[in-house]
What does this fold into?
Amino acid sequence: MAQQLHNTFWRGTKIRFREGVDGALGMPVSLDTLDSARVRGAYWTPKGNPAPKVAVIAAHPRVDFTEHHTFPALLRAGYGCMGANMRSLNNDADCLHEKLVLDIGAYMTWLKEHGTEKIVLLGNSGGGSLFSFYQGQAKAAPAQRIMKTPGGRRTLLEKADLIPGDAMIYMAAHAGQGLIINQVIDPAAIDEGDPFKTDPDLDMYDPRNGFNPAPAWTAYAPEFVARYRQAQLGRVRRIDGMAHDLLAAQRRAAALHGAEYFDDLPADVRRDALQRETFEAVMVVYRTLANLNYADNSLDPSNRAYGSLISPRPDIKNFQRAGFARILTPEGWLSTWSGLSSNANIEKSGHAVSEPALVIEAGRDLDVYPKAHGQRILNSIAATDVDHWTFPDALHYFEDDPGESGNVTLNALMARLVPWLQDRFPI
It folds into this structure.
């Protein structure tokens, strides 16, 4: 039963070269960031242009993009391609987007040091909000950059050498992981310690609220939709408060440890303070597959099928482990997954994107929707050279349907994307 309920979205099977590139050379790249993290990626160069002056960099907070599926066509056109993996590869439990800015900065510096003159930022899926955030910090004066994460940790961004990108491509990109959470978190979950405690009046999967089981679409009442969306923000706010409380308790213990009178305290008090100071809390966020759009296609219309990227049966998968933002630290929640606290939010950073920009929508995407994400990106960025393309039959990673081959939607995309680049960045 579990196999039928679970899609392969997070296994990375869709993000890979889907055709060979004759003579392309792949170079492993290992870099140390300003704060001494180690990041690893791969730089690809075409056979006929071993030192390209123009490169495309692709990155994602969590997914391996070293063999991104757009690279073969870009390499044939003569562009360099950097698949830049982040420090949070395959595990974003403690993902701090402010630290990922340092990771991207290290790759950008490496490209410039190796002869690249123009760098195009390819923000696929979660890479869109990540690169927008990076661009905002790169273009800000060092003293105006974000000094602390939402959880209060030093970022070091004011000391970083951050090189802005020369163009931005949003490919099936969402507007921020937190803005995803704002829509997928289940507001009917009323007790973070007990996933079965439910407010039935806020349960989207309760037939009494209009729900129809898959594959029949649901039409939720406008009053329910408004109440539901507000309650989702209320739950995010509640989890924000929990995260801040955990971090505040740790800071109080650290302050006690640093007090002049600490050594005069009883041994059990000192021991408790040290334990609380070094404690690394882990938060479990249950039920994060509850977007009304999964069951009601009228709320943000598109060509998508029923369900989520993660499962065609979100009503059941909502109670299983796989999902968005399920296990993470308080810092990770606030920096990456909270739609109220995260800085990696297109509405906060889009104003910094004034370079040529391209917004590409996949019409059959199951979690990135036209109004919630595509239009929000278009409304937020400051670029005047902007194109907006929709591929009605494309899935999230422009992959083939199960059992099919041929790369039809990917080839259609690349047939337009390569000329778009050539017009702006000729080889």
Observations:
- Residues 123 and 357 are 11 Å apart (CA to CA).
- The radius of gyration is 22 Å.
